[in-house]
Structure formats: structure tokens, C-alpha cells
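[audit] Reproducing an earlier prediction to check determinism. Same input, same settings, fresh worker. If the C-alpha cells differ from the archived copy the diff job will pick it up downstream; this log only records the rerun itself.
[audit] input (103 residues):
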Amino acid sequence: MTSPHANGDVRDLSLSKTGVDRIEWAGREMPVLNIIRERFLREKPLAGIRMAACLHVTTETANLALTLRDGGAELVIRQQPLEHPGRDCRRIGAGVRDSHLRH
């Protein structure tokens, strides 16, 4: 699940190890999404598609975002501005291109 750091606005990337562990743990419990992700890695069906989202980033939505990225999509994800600082934002900022997470 490692990838180069994206250009983005993440307050503290030193906390990303905790986020990585939580996202990987959740990913092991999402077998259908893992099947889709494996196919997306091979076929890149979303290549050339740009997506943006403003949502509460959880371990589950982080896995969805990483799956979309692996399918070739260019993603911009922003944590909802009035929500608490999400632990899972710490990883997604390092794993999704052009992420703009401020937590």
C-alpha cells in the first residue's frame, strides 16, 4: 500500500504509519473491494477520469479512494471542513494524488 507522497496539504504526515496500519487492517476485511482493486490495477478502467470528493475519510472510504486511484483515476479528496481530525486522513494524503486533506 506504499506510494510516493502526493502534493497536498496534510498537517502531519509523520502520523501516516498509524493511518496505514488502520487502512490495511480494514482492507483485509473488504474482500469484494480487493477483487475490484486487483482488476483495476491490471485494466486501469478509470484512466483519464478526474474525481473529487468532500467526505468523512474513514478506513473504508480510504480503501475505496485507493481502489479508484489504482483504477487510474486522478483524485482530489478533502475532509469535510467541520469534522474532527480523522486518523485515516494521515495515510490517504500520502496515497492519493493531489490530495488536499488538512487533518
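[audit] rerun output stored. Observation attached for the diff report: Helices lie at 16-28, 31-43, 59-70, 89-95.
[audit] end
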